[in-house]
Request: fold
Amino acid sequence: MLYFLATRTLAAIPVMLMVSVIVFSILYFAPGDPAILMLGDLGTSAEVAAAKEKLGLNDPYLVQLLRFIGNILHGDLGNTLFFGKQAVTSLIIQRLEPTLALTLSTIIVCIVIAVPLGTLAAWRSGGLVDRCVMLISVVGFSIPTFVLGYTLVFTLAIKAQILPVQGYKSITEGIVPFIRSIALPTMTLGLAYLVLILRITRASVLDTLHEDYVRTAKAKGVSDVTLLHRHSLPNAAIPIITVVGLGMTSLISGVVITEVVFNIPGIGRLMLDAIVKRDYPLIQGIVIFVSFAYVIINLVVDVVYAYFDPRIRF
Reply:
């Protein structure tokens, strides 16, 4: 297992390096001059030239690229142009908690609901529960995130006044305020993710229920709970883990819309503000951070694969 983990970790290093090169190259060749953007329309030619020299923008492409990668290895993503000249790394860390809380709450709620419900639908295939599950999945896939968000705000926040309309409360301010502030965004972000896990779980468990070893266990008088828990679910885990991993990465992109709708000061909202202001260092830093998160998530998924299916290690 340690050898498998080491090889997967080493394989992730060139991927991260390639991501860094691509991100830097895209913004390097993009139109616009960061020095002019930083100084604004009132900056003189001399001031622009001095800013470019200070930022190292006059250096050749390869020199700037190597400096950029070297700074990343030291945890330095540069300074923002419009957010008080703060360090990009520090600003991302400040905005990380709301995004992390929203993502983790969505993942936990979706798995807790979707896996048991999908398993039950597979076990009662063709029955009322199965038909209701399939209906929910079709409706869930059909509703866009922003439409669901505004609908929940109108019904649960404005009309019923059960939950706050927008904003975010840190968990340090209390569990109840935190849950209330994160409830609507979690429901909005999690519906499509929930029905995806639900359908994959149903299909995967349904396949395993038709395997010979399940029929043999049933013929031996194994109880339904044991049959599902010890025989069916472990062998159906790989497709479920796959869709959970893919869903986690898709949640990162979905967070942008959700944070804007509910005015949550997270990474997604910060990315949108950086694009509007054309803050190149901040855009680079966020893209690098999100890309590395993708790589780490895929690495974790590979390790979980190996845990459930030891054949993958060899």
